[in-house]
Structures are given as C-alpha cells and as structure tokens.
Amino acid sequence: MIGTLATYLAFPFVRYALVVGVLIALCSSLLGVTLVLKRFSFIGDGLSHVAFGALAIAGILNLTDDMLFVLPVTVLAAVLLLRTGQNTKIKGDAAIAMISVSALAIGYLLMNLFSTSTNLSGDVCSTLFGSTSILTLTKGEVWLCAVLSLSVVALFVLFYNRLFAVTFDEDFARASGTRVEAYNLLIAVVIAVIIVLAMNLVGSLLISALIIFPAMSAMRVFSSFKAVTVFSGVLSVVSALLGMLISIIYGTPVGATIVAVDLAAFLLCCIAARAKGGK
Amino acid sequence: MNLKKRMVMLLLLALCALAAEASAFSLFGKPEEKAEGVDLDLSKLSGTVVYSQVYNMMVTPEDFIGKTIRVAGYFDVYEDAETGNNYFACIIPDATACCAQGLEFLWADEHPYPDDYPEPGCDMTMTGRFETYEEDGMEYMRLADAQVEWGEID
Fold it and tell me: ipTM of this predicted complex?
C-alpha cells in the first residue's frame, strides 16, 4: 500500500492536487460553520451555479484567464445574496434558488449556442462534477489557489472574534460597535473565493457538500463555536485527503469520492453523538 | 488564542508542503518500478492518474520528448476525409467518463490498415517514444516506433 502510494506521489500533479485540495477543504470548512449557523447552507450551491454561468461566458469570450472574470462575478452575486433579507422583496432562500437555476440555465444555454469547443458535453460535465480538474492544474494555478486559500484562512484567523459576533447575533454585534455590514461583505467575498477555488476540487454541483458536511458533522459532536470550527477544519482536511487518495489509487471520480467520504464522516459523527447520549 | 496558534501552525504546514514540492523527487527517477526500457509506465496505474498524466503530457510536451512511455487504453482511428490519411490513437477516458484523452501512435514496422488492426474500441497497450510533429502549422504529439499489444493485459 505504501509502495503504491509512493508511486502515485512521484507524479507532480498528484502532489499539487493533494496540497491544493487540503487547503481548499480547510478554508471551505471554516466558513461552512458561519454559513450553517447564519442559515445560509445553500448559498454555496447558488454561487457555484453563478460561477458556472460566468465560466461559460468566459469560455465564449475566449478569455485566457477565466478567473479574472469568474471571481468578480461570483463576488458580486455573493454580496447580492447576503444582502437579501435586508429591505428586499425576494427573501433569502427564494433569491438563492432563483439566481442558482437562472445562472445554470443561462450558462448552459450560452455554451450550447456560442461555444467553439469540440467537446461541449465534456466541458459541461467536468465543470459540474469537477472531473479531474484538481489533477490537471498548472503550476501557476496551484500557486494562485494556494495564495487565495491561505489568504482566506489568514482572514478567518484575524477576524475570528468579529465573525463569531456577526454569526450569532448581528443586532448585538451592531450595538457593540461592530461594523456588521463590512463583515458581511467580507464573508461574501471570502465565500465567493472559496466557491471559485472549490470548483476545481469537486465541481460546481458538489461544492455545498464541502461547506455543509464538515460543519454539520462537528455540530453533532461539539457545541462551542471554537470546538466546532477546529473539528470541522480537521475533519474536512482528513476527508478531502482520504477522498483524493482513494480516487487516485482506485480510479474513482475525485469530487464524488470526497463527498462520499464527507457523508461517511457525518454518519460516524452521528453515531458518536448517539453513543455519547447527545443529539 | 489557542485557535489562532493552531491556525498559524496549519498555515506553516501548508507552506512547508508547498516548499517541499520544489525539491520533490523526480517522476523519471524510480527505475525499480518501471518495465525494462520504459521511462514512464502508465499501464498499471489508475484511470484517474493516467488520464491526468496524458493531459499534462499534452499541455507540457517538452517535459516528455524522447521518453519511452507505456500506456493502456482502447483503440480508435480517425480518417481524414480530405487527405485520406489515417491517424491511430489510444484513447484514455477519465473516471467520470465525460472526457477522454487520445494519444496518437505510429506502430513500428509495416502494418496495413485495416488488415492488421482490430475494430475501434478494442483494448490496447502500447510502448513508444514520445515525440511532437508539425502538420499544417499545428503541433501534434504521438508515440513513435510503438510496440502494440491488443486486448487486455494483466
């Protein structure tokens, strides 16, 4: 087993994938706790569909670096979605559902009408399910993913106390002088960055799993914000690593395998919580 | 504060992993795991890794020119209606079966088509020298002087 693993690790793209995958899993789980507690579990799904639509437009425009287009569009959508519920006629879950399906439909429509690719179904499939995107990153993309992921983790560590306050009670945070709108904007930007990064790992249809599962698993076992955040991060990293290794060794789809491991971890946490006599 | 320390440690670990990448061992530097005379043996690896490796060979061919490569997949042929030329390829699908990479090959010695070739879709394993060539101003990659084995190899 160790020999097999060493053979696979001799491939540079496998090492890149493991490093980037672990970093993406770590930062998605950190923000996952905040999103689940703010009742925005489904925002990952909505934003990933927006990113899919933006990616389709970037492809049609033949942009050499699609990230320059996809990232700002996803950030804008995240800001708009997190602002819902405040003076808007269409409330949170309905707004997410509408933006999500509209972006998905328009993206696919545009790809069908204007794409110059010879393998349209392959392009759509690999964007939706990740395919082997994480294993085919260039060195530049690896560094970009690493820098963005580390920036997200650094921001989370630096603003941990403020994010904690904004997550649990916005009104109290506002009353105590915290600039709630600014921190909500920060959360929106960070979520968008994570979504764009995670599309490489699991594809746009499975991103929600990376955000929700580790947080929900941790909440089965722990009850304090700090313990849930730390355990969620550790569990997400271990699950992503295990999922990628299984996928690499046994030739299974990367994204689906990671999500299956996340699901297994969630079930184990549920059993552990039952055994403890808790939730 | 404890959480911050843990996070900083995680960041440092991630940076160390990236730094280690710069001095990592070479792909072509483990002779004990390769078949004789083969620089890169992909025939025993999982589909996910083989697909990704062939994709990377197409993106950065300069890293592989002159290397002897062994790879397994299934046979396909492309017939150019304008020139009448036939191009033979080993197709490697990815794990989700939505994408596939085709690696062209030139079978060593004389082998008339279609007499010596099986039907498209037949399993194959080939060993050949990776090279690039130009045609109509476009650069293509292929395995030259390829030794081909038809059917599934254990």
Answer: 0.75
Amino acid identity at A6: A
CA B100 to chain centre: 11
Q: Which residues of A touch B5 (CB under 8 A)?
A: none
Which residues form the domain of A241? 2-274
> Does residue B19 lie in a domain region?
no
Nearest residue of chain A to residue B20 (CA atoms): A15
Give the pLDDT of chain A (279 residues) as one tens digit per residue.
777 888 888 888 898 889 888 988 998 888 888 888 877 777 888 888 888 888 888 888 877 677 788 888 988 888 887 765 555 666 667 778 888 889 889 988 888 888 766 667 777 777 777 666 788 888 888 888 888 888 888 888 888 888 888 888 888 888 888 888 888 888 888 888 888 888 877 777 778 888 899 999 999 999 888 899 999 999 999 999 999 999 999 888 888 899 999 999 999 999 999 988 755
Judge: A157–B3 Cβ closer than 8 Å, yes or no.
yes
Q: Is residue A224 part of a domain?
A: yes
Domain count, chain A: 1
* Domain residue limits at B125: 26-150
Query: Cβ neighbours of residue B151 under 8 Å, at least 6 residues apart?
Result: B122, B123, B124
| In a domain? residue B78 | yes
Within an 8 Å CB–CB cutoff, is residue B153 touching chain A? no
B33 in contact with chain A, both atoms CB, cutoff 8 A: yes
Q: What's the pTM value of the predicted model, to 2 decimals?
A: 0.81
Nearest to B25 among A10, A23, A230 (CB): A10
Query: Residue B124: inside a domain, yes or no?
Result: yes
The domain tally of chain B equals 1
- Is A182 within the bounds of a domain? yes
Structure tokens at B3: 């959480």
Phi and psi angles of residue B91, each rounded to the nearest 5 degrees, phi first: -100, 130
